[in-house]
Fold these 2 entries.
Entry 1:
Amino acid sequence: MTATLIDGKAIAATLRADVAAAVTARTAAGHRAPCLAVVLVGDDPASAVYVRSKARACAEAGLRGLEHRLPATTTETDLLALVDALNTNDSVDGILVQLPLPPQCRADAVIARIDPAKDVDGFHPLNAGRLAAGLPGLVPCTPLGCLRLLTRTLGGIAGAEALVIGRSTIVGRPMASLLINESATVTIAHSRSRDLPALTARADIVIAAVGRPEMIRGPWLKPGATVIDVGINRVASGDGHKLVGDVAFAEAMEVAGAVTPVPGGVGPMTIACLLENTLTAATARAAT
Ligand SMILES: Nc1nc(=O)c2c([nH]1)NC[C@@H]1CN(c3ccc(C(=O)N[C@@H](CCC(=O)O)C(=O)O)cc3)C=[N+]21
């Protein structure tokens, strides 16, 4: 048996087209285009690549993209001042401060300074709390993208046994909240979990977000399970490197019902959901 490939790239393209259509309708109705401000501190090459692809995706969907590049030596005070300026700039709808930040800037302090109504990453404690409480708010892009992939693949997920592997504030915890809100039965596993193979054996849905290359093995999976691989790990291959997920992909394809590839799975959905969140923020702000 060979599993279905979940084409995140194609599903992200349809989501981006939906956002673009909604943006066109908004501008036709006399609103300005939603505007996303991305802040990049330092010159980490991987971060620069992500920021560029966000800028391209914004342009294609008709959103305005602003980019603020600050030197790696930027003080936390200066970064907070930029966040304050973006918070009070009425033409900015969404603010994303690219992580990780250099050590002199505390991510927690910077995130907490962002206006929760403009927090398109959904990382502000107010939005995290709203999600945990089952209240509406801005939801982190990667788990939101995973949920969209699941509902596309399975229809509903009410009553399903879901296993989230990883307890980070940016993926694992919000993912578990989203699944609970959709009435799945949710288990959260992590590095100290005692028997991961036993937990995966009962899971209809596995979300792997551990950051360890190919750690989740095919034989651990329940036959027919839906596997969402959040991992993006750069590993040596030949002379260069390649990207692999947290799931041993070829093994999973032998057992699972449907699997996301890396690349081309969750990554493109993260960017599409960032556009969706920026539209959501613009719509909600215009209504207040
Ligand atoms: N405040 C903040 N918010 C973020 O959402 C955020 C961040 N900081 N810091 C960095 C991570 C990483 N991230 C990715 C988004 C898309 C892909 C993506 O589209 N990847 C493609 C290609 C990957 C490649 O070829 O390198 C794929 O998986 O198919 C990957 C990674 C968002 N991040």
Entry 2:
Amino acid sequence: MSCFSSFCVTPMASPPLLFSSTRNPSVGGDSFRRGFRCCPLSLSVSCGVSVGEETGGSAAPTLREVCGGKVPESILKRAEEIGYTVPTDVQRQSLPVLLSGCDCILHAQTGSGKTLAYLLLVFSAINFQKSAVQALIVVPTRELGMQVTKVARMLAANPVGGENMQKACTVMALLDGGMLKRHKSWLKAEPPEIVVATIGSLCQMLQKNIFKLQAVRVLVIDEVDFIFGSSKQVFLLRKLLTAYSTIDSRQTVLASASIPQHNRFLYDCIQQKWTKNDVVHIHVNPVQPMPSHLCHNFVICGKKERLHVLLSLLQKTDLNLG
Ligand SMILES: Nc1ncnc2c1ncn2[C@@H]1O[C@H](COP(=O)(O)OP(=O)(O)OP(=O)(O)O)[C@@H](O)[C@H]1O
């Protein structure tokens, strides 16, 4: 029987992130995973409780804790050096699911941290001793490909003082407008562990048999809605998902900021064999565009009273205009 899980989260509080965002409550990844693993039918979970309520007031987990020992130490150290210590909502919700090996649809707004979530999965799945393409990240544009490659290379670099921690992992950017000849030699001589590719360049390589996907353990399609929205790219993407590799040989992650008609999309993923039957839909939905602890007040007053009221309001709050 077809079975997928849909997981919706409503944001509640705000974390110390490198970007401005709202934050949502945490739901224990383990209990959630146990729930959907045992459930033969589709499951939709919608949560609107704060972290405090959920965890009995204990502190929110760190990125390291959320990774549960499944991401190599050198990568976690690098992530912490870069400043990724507190997971974003989508990372907190998705990492336990991703790292358990499930296919996943990451559905969260732009800038919510989907890239780091799937990259941590990629690094957890790679055998650093093996020189073969083990993870493939497909992007719709060269620009996005360059961004993802940059973050992947930053994470793959040795952490300070950890030069001998692990064999270096290489990341190839196989993007439209790049030098495919050079990539061809590189792929033959010493295949990188991770390839970030635009679908056009990737399929050129696949058609010419320069590149094969037999060692690929993780396939990520970023901005999947964008690719499916382009008639040129969608044909190649379908081929990639079903002909060049199969669902049983890989873990599939489809990421997007918007998935119109997501129930229909999930149904298609299963029916068309783009993902396994137990694909998990993680939908982090920013219902509140403003942090919930921020409150707005207003006072109606005449001209004379204005300064006095403003000053007394400032005294009551910790707002610092200086
Ligand atoms: N755990 C974290 N802590 C602090 N900053 C983070 C964390 N995760 C991601 N960021 C930062 O948040 C910003 C946005 O992240 P990212 O680009 O991964 O979002 P995204 O959801 O993949 O966006 P898009 O849909 O545009 O691809 C980046 O600058 C990234 O460095």
